[in-house]
Every structure is written in structure tokens, then in C-alpha cells.
Amino acid sequence: MQNQSHRIQLAPGKERSLKNRHPWVFSGAIQSGKKEGQEGGLVEVFDSEGSYLATGHFHHGTIMVRVISFEQRTIDQQFWNEKIAQAFDLRKQLNLPIKGTTDAFRLVHGEGDGLPGLIIDVYGDTAVIQAHSAGMRLSIQQIAAALQSVQDLALNNIYDKSAEFSDQPTTHANGCLIGGGDETVVSENGHLFLVNWRDGQKTGFFLDQRDNRLLLAQYASGKNVLNTFCYSGGFSMYALKAGAQHVTSVDSSRKAMDWTQRNAELNAFESSRHTAVCDDVNTYLKQVPNGLHDLIILDPPAFAKHLSAADKAVVGYRNLNETAIRKIAPGGILFTFSCSQAIDKQLFRKTIFTAAAKTGRNVRILHQLSQGADHPISLYHPEGEYLKGLVLRID
User: Fold this and answer.
1) Domain boundary among 134, 167, 196
2) Residue 158 lies in a domain
């Protein structure tokens, strides 16, 4: 529990970003209070003339303060209850959850919900928490209590999956804060998915692609589909239900392929319509005969998690997309994505342009995609727009 705040004072002229409600304070902007700050502790930030600006969590690093409030108030259980309730109110406005069809959604999306460093995904009656900062990890019990205070969520299980982002051990067994278990079956737009939050990537499923999976279904009927980096087969299940002739799902993870197979069984798809391949995507894609697939999905993991890796990532995205554009059948549809925060929309589009130009094929943009609305982007924090996607027609 945190309720004591330390004071940070900015250097003259460094208050502008906070006055514009950007939720980060960089180390170079701070004039005094750095040495006294405790990792994960609460700090109040003042400008050089002593006027209050914001309250946040302190961290030793380039980003020294992550703002959780622009109002000077006590950060107590009531604060956390209000923030979680506000986040849920937004999801209700987005018509989430949808009874009978969708019971999996993102409840808290970091800066987009005014809580930098905190991710909470809901899977039926389970909430899975990822605290990406020391401040959020120190507040985990208050966050769990706030989740329980929202009656309409009706949670029976709360699981903390923060340990993989920290060298600090959790104080609760196996990550379980409330309840137990490590997997469940959820429904997304009527499609069934097994979600394992203990062993799965992120919180167990990639909820940010929900709307894009629904869009893919509009193009899948009668198509021969290749879903690469498929994880547990999200796009594959939508394509199969939409009437794809055949879907091939490829991922290098054996565990992911097992989940994909289980999801195909959950949705009662004929085994003859789906092939699961455990292989390196780049290797597999290069061996695919030209023109075999008329719908291809490229949804790789982040090639660049930091700006220093951006140049290398661009080469990876370019080569991957060039191969897919060469391989796809004439008139084919390519869904291509980047979830690398270090690659912005303009750079991603330029990279795909370069890949397409090398093939000599005519390529048109049909859709420009982003994350779902339950992964909101603060207008004051454009860095939150991490998922970029294009739907391309290849002639």
C-alpha cells in the first residue's frame, strides 16, 4: 500500500509536456528530488516555481515518473476503485462484454486509461494483471481490491502475471491473488478460444486483434488461407467459420500449435479444412509454391522493442512482406501487421512500400488498421498506438 508522496521539482521550462497531459517525466527534466526518490514510490511533481503539476510513480531510469493523476489527491483505495470503475464504464460504452458472444476484453490499457504500467485483461470471470512498473507492482493488492469492488465484473479469479517483467518475486503462490486455475474457454464474437494465462504469451491471448479478426472474416469465404505467427489460431478460427476452403496455421511454438488444434476442435471444424504446422515462418514461407494462397496473414511478434533495434526490425518486416507479396496468388489479400512500438505508422507503411516495389506487383491499400477500442490511445500519448496494420490487394 502506498500513501506517502515524495516531492520532485522540474527545471525551468520543463513543465510544458505535463501541462499538455503527457504522462511521462524524463530524467533530464528534473531539477531536484531524483536522489531521494524510491523505486516505485509515489511522487508529486512541481514546476520550477513550486506549482503542482501531477502525481505518479517514481523509477530510476530515463522515464523517471509515470503519471497516474493530474489532480493533487491522496492515492488510496478510493483512488484505485475510481480508476478501475472508470475503465469499466468505458468498456460498457463499447458494449463489452457482450452477453453470449464476447466475454474477453481489455479492461485497463496503461496510459490509455491513465494508469501507465498497468494492463488488465478479462477472460470470463478471470482478470489477469500485468504490472510493467515497480509502482504498479507495489499497488497490486489495491488494484485487486478495486477489481473486486466492481460488481458487474463478477470476478471469481484474479491472477497476477507480473513476475516475468520483474526480478522481484511475487508474494502470492503461482500468481493467484484470488481464486485459482490457469486456463478457461472464452467467446469472442461467437468464436471459442482456450486461454491459458499462466503459460501463454502476454496475458494469454491477443485481444487487440479482435476487430481485425472480424474484418478478415469478410474476405475469407472460399479462400485458401495462410495464417503465419498464428499463436493460438485467432485469425484461423475466424477464417474457418467464415467459410474458408482451407486454412494453414504456422508458428514456431509447439505449445501454440497445440492450442491452435484445440481451438479448432472447440469450434468443431472439420480436420480436413485445417493444417497446423510447427515451423519457422520465414523458412516455411519461402518454400510455399507461388500462388497457392489467396489470403495471407502476417502478424509477427515485435521485431523492435526499443528504438535502437528499429533499423534491424525494418529489414525484418521488409523481407517478410516481400516474400509474402511474391508468393500470394493474383488478386490475393494480405493482412500485414507490426506491433513494434518503435516502428510508427509512417515507417511501417514505407517499409511495406519498399517490399512491394521490389516485387514489381500492383498493390493497393484497402484498410489501415490499429488496435481495438478497448485498447484506447490517449490523445496526449501518441506512443500508445503500437499496433499498425494494412490490408492489401495484390494483383
Assistant:
1) 196
2) yes
pLDDT category at 35 given cuts 50, 70, 90 is confident
Check residue 104 and give its pLDDT: 98
Cβ atoms within 10 Å, residue 392: 22
Question: What does the H/E/C string look like for the chain?
Answer: CCCCEEEEEECCCCCHHHHCCCCEEEHHHEEECCCCCCCCCEEEEECCCCCEEEEEEECCCCEEEEEEECCCCCCCHHHHHHHHHHHHHHHHHCCCCECCCECEEEEEEHHHHCCCCEEEEEECCEEEEEECCHHHHHCHHHHHHHHHHCHHHCCCEEEECCHHHCCCCCCCHHHEEECCCCEEEEEECCEEEEEECCCCCCCCCCHHHHHHHHHHHHHHCCCEEEEECCCCCHHHHHHHHCCCCEEEEEECCHHHHHHHHHHHHHCCCCHHHEEEEECCHHHHHHHCCCCCCCEEEECCCCCCCCHHHHHHHHHHHHHHHHHHHHHCCCCEEEEEEECCCCCCHHHHHHHHHHHHHHHCCCEEEEEEECCCCCCCCCCCCHHHCCCEEEEEEEC
Q: Check whether 170 has a pLDDT greater than 50.
A: yes
Q: Does a structural domain hold residue 202?
A: no
Q: Based on the domain organization, do 18 and 86 belong to the same domain?
A: no
Average pLDDT over residues 321-346: 95
pLDDT in tens, 181-211: 999 999 999 999 999 999 999 999 999 999 9
Q: Are 185 and 115 members of one domain?
A: yes
**pLDDT for 1:** 46
CA distance 87 to 77: 16
Domain boundary among 22, 49, 69: 69
Residues 6+ apart with CB under 8 A from 308: none
pTM: 0.95
Task: Kindly report the CATH number assigned to the domain that includes residue 156.
Answer: 3.30.750.80
The mean per-residue pLDDT over the stretch 377-388 comes to: 95
